Amino acid sequence: MSSAKQRTLNINVGILGHVDSGKTSLGERATKAKILTSGLRFPSRLTPFSAIFTTLPMHTVRALSTHFSTASLDKHPQSIERGITLDLGFSSFSTRVPKNLDNDLYEQVQFTLVDCPGHATLMKTVLGGAHIIDMMVLVIDVNKGMQTQTAECLVVGEITAQDLLVVLNKIDMIPEKLRFERIENAKARLRKVLKATKFRDCEFISVAARPGGADGMEAGGLPPIGMAALVSSLSSYVTTKKIERCFGTFLFAVDHCFPARGQGTVMTGTVLRGTCKVGDEIELPELGIVKKVKSMQMFKRPVQDCAKGDRLGICVTQLDPKLIERGMLAAPGTVPRFSTAVVLAQKIRYYKGRVLSKMKFHVTVGHVTAMATAEFFGNISEAGAAREDSSASPGMMDRDTINTSLQHSWKSSLPRQPSDQIFTEFDGQKEYSYYEELLYAAGMHEQNSEEIVDTSIKPVSVASNKRTLQNATWALLFFDRPVVCPPGGLYIASRLDTDIQKNACRLAFYGQILRPFAFDQDTSAMRCIKVFKLKRREGVIERLQDDKSAICKGMFKRETDLSMFQGMKVFTDRGEEGIISGWFGKSGKFKVFFRDGIQPVSEADKNTKLYLYFKRHAFDKEDKRVFQ
Asked: How far is CA 290 from CA 266, 287, 298, 329, 330, in A?
């Protein structure tokens, strides 16, 4: 590895929060705090950004950042005119290495701030950027508390981020005599909300990114409040756990692409996995194009290689920069393009709607959001099958029958960076049962309604240590258009068409991509997914032929192909077991043979019921067979 790379440690931070909470202004102000700076140098104006995903308002990013990339702080004309963020913005600042790290290895720590829009209609943009974050800064207007998008951002953080720092902004709006008391009251209310999440012990920092607001800035303004404490707190989250290098195939998240005159096309972003060096071939999976790396630059200096966590620009030749704005680079052949995938599915607890099979959702994979139809299934025990079959609604799973023998424990949160492991959670050789609805995992604790403050949305404890794969649910996602994602990648399914005035959580479920399929190219792959719908049919015994045979009716229509059911077991409501042996006449009646005999049917028992339990393939539409 190059020495230049080893001297700077990159940390990715996401900045999120409700619209107009002050995220963007914060980054602009850090320059006055005399923080160390560094930048990328393909064009001299481009600077690196180790992704810090923070939930701070626009003002927050401006106060912290000392370098702004060519994609910084959302240059969309409507964003400038309306004064709100409409797209992802990237900027960065650097600090000295914390004392708990090896100062001989690293010279400085660079934080990249990813400024996310806060408006409800732009949630898909937030979700698209969430896959590159290491930690999250949640910016909250101290005078308004938890708002609708604040709560949704908290749900996103639970799924994607390891750490959370809550920033209470706009404290300058509180009279100084009342400031301490009101800030403490705000913290107390927020702690009740966070108590139900994995961020229950998170830190609070009080700031004023732009004292006096926009008017104050134009008049020279007062200096920001709390910036030094915020930077110090961010630095305290930098641990050796965040700098672990990972082996495996190369994967790179591209967040910006532009032409460099005389050099080629530069793609800037973050290494999510593996290593790469100058001269290596890399693939743009969305385009199906393979290119050779011409050069790399990191912190104004050329480097020969890079590894997980590094923030840099990669230059290739003969690539139209208009073809890619955000996306992925990968080792050739390692990131598939697919239209269907088997995924793990975990319902977000405070999504108030039902999550039914065959419903359509907005599914975000990386920077792409596409429509997909979901169908759910799970693993049940042999003993549970009969109990499920006897339910009132065919195909509805009795969740008490789910197999609890799975040994794999659910991690504290889903990994944002996929690995090369073979995912054994889904076994293609096992049989699974179709679910009509995705339910919550069993054993999850309920929360009291009084824990919600200032909004009807309550954050979901999506990453609790109590959650395991004992009640695992899988899904088959059918995308309306092909997408790309490495196996193990994170997805989030939402209903973004929900009325934003209802103050309801729109994020429905999430999980990992386990097994992608290109069914348009390989239709036989569908037959390898052994998911069955459990069915039940009911008939009655009309009369007995002898002590071991009965004539029955009401179970089949006369046009039914009875050969599909011949030899199958049936049961009377008295517990007797028989076998379907064939038709009796042409009116839909059939014969059943009882090997151990059958009790006489009295006048009182004339309508003795008969039950047939069976299953058929849920996804292989060409296979019409039925099984027991």
From this structure: 15, 9, 23, 9, 9
State how far the Cα of 342 lies from the Cα of 397, in Å rounded to an integer.
Answer: 19
What's the mean pLDDT in 420-444? Answer: 69
DSSP reduced 3-state for 6: helix
Report which residue type is found at 299: F
> Two tokens at 412?
């504290």
For domain 3-242, which architecture applies?
3-Layer(aba) Sandwich (3.40)
Q: Is the pLDDT of residue 397 over 50?
A: no
Rounded CA-CA distance 523/529 in Å is 12
pLDDT tens-digit series, residues 487-508: 888 999 999 888 877 778 889 9
> The domain 535-616 is classified under which CATH number: 3.30.300.130, 3.30.1490.120, 3.90.1680.10, 2.40.10.190?
2.40.10.190
Residue 348 near residue 312, CB atoms below 8 Å: no
Q: How many residues does the chain have?
A: 628
The confidence score (pLDDT) of residue 603 equals 66
Q: How remote is the C-alpha of 49 from its chain's centroid?
A: 23
Task: Indicate the DSSP class of residue 20.
Answer: T
* Cα three-residue angle 571-573-576, rounded to 5 degrees: 45
DSSP output for 192-225: HHHTTSTTTT-EEEE-BSSTTHHHHHHT--PPPB
Which residues does 217 contact at the CB level (< 8 Å), separation at least 6? 25, 210
Of 23, 37, 29, the C-alpha closest to 67 is 37
Locate CATH 3.40.50.300 in the chain. Answer: 3-242
247-330 homologous superfamily: Translation factors (2.40.30.10)
- What number of other Cβ atoms are within 10 A of residue 429's Cβ? 6
pLDDT at position 47: 35
Please report, for residues 292, 364, 544, the alpha-carbon distance to residue 320 in angstroms, rounded to integers and kept in the order given. Answer: 15, 25, 80
- Is residue 113 predicted with pLDDT exceeding 50? yes
SS3 533: strand
- Is the domain spanning 337-528 CATH 2.60.20.10? The answer is no
Higher pLDDT, 501 or 307: 307
Sign of the Cα torsion 482, 486, 488, 494 reads negative
Q: Alpha-carbon distance 504 to 507, whole Å?
A: 9
